[in-house]
Specification:
Length: 174
């Protein structure tokens, strides 16, 4: 649209080259809050990751330290990507710091990730430590979304955990 104040009224042929502004296309925003999408680098489309309902599982005996795991069904994700490059994900979220990425390992018919450990502290206390989070580069993407960049992941199984939901994917060799 050309402003009528410029006297052109729809015909750009009379504009000077310096007056023409090229607007870059806006990135596609995710439709739903809290869903993780892979940003496909070939065509810039958003592909939703499968959503799982994880279980929290603890391990340890007696009064010793206890490990806490997040467990999802199946030994491997149905969503596969090729490795050897950074992976970009997009999420519409008001709190991107509440999104955590973990590496999962197959355990029987499931996959699980170590997310924390706790141990007794004194007579009544418990010391808790979060573990296993993979560092992400988080930047704004569009108006309401964030881009999450995972730097060249190793071959394996991974999952984003947001509250009581997990969004999983697997990285295959090139």
């Amino acid at each position: 649209c050309i402003p009528k104040a410029w006297g052109c009224q729809g015909d750009i042929s009379t504009l000077l080259k310096g007056d023409i502004i090229t607007l870059l296309p806006q990135p596609a925003e995710p439709e739903s809050m809290g869903i993780i999408y892979l940003l496909d680098s070939t065509d810039q489309t958003l592909k939703p990751l499968p959503k799982e309902t994880p279980k929290r599982v603890t391990g340890g005996k007696g009064f010793a330290s206890r490990n806490t795991f997040v467990q999802v069904p199946e030994p491997a994700s149905s969503f596969r990507v090729k490795g050897g490059r950074d992976l970009e994900f997009v999420v519409k979220s008001s709190n991107p710091e509440g999104i955590h990425l973990y590496a999962f390992k197959a355990k029987g018919k499931n996959r699980q990730a170590l997310v924390g450990t706790s141990s007794p502290k004194g007579l009544r206390g418990v010391s808790t430590q979060q573990l296993g989070q993979i560092t992400l580069d988080i930047t704004k993407y569009g108006e309401l979304s964030y881009r999450l960049v995972m730097k060249a992941p190793a071959v394996g199984e991974y999952g984003f955990v947001i509250g009581w939901s997990a969004f999983d994917f697997g990285v295959d060799p090139n």
